[in-house]
Amino acid sequence: MKKNTIILLVILLTTIVGTDKLIFASDNAAEKLQTNISVKGTLILQAMTAEKPNNYGGIYNTYTTSLDIEKELKNNAKITVSLKGGISNYTIDRNNLTYSTINKDANSKDLYIETIYHKSFFCNKFNIDLGKFGLSKHFDKNTYADDTSTQFLTGSFASNKTVESLDDRLGLRLNYTFSKFDIDYGYFSLIKNKFDNNGFNILQISYKPSKKENYRVYGWMDNRKYFIYKEKKDNKLKARVFGIGASLDREINKQIGIFARFGYKDPSIQTTINNYNENSNNISDFITPSLLLSVGAQIKGSSWSRANDIIGLAIGQIYTSNLKKCNKNYKYHTETQMELYYKLEINDNIAITPNLQYIAHSKDDNNNLFIYGIRTHFKF
Question: Which of 152, 118, 80, 73 is closest to 316 using CA atoms?
Answer without folding.
Answer: 152
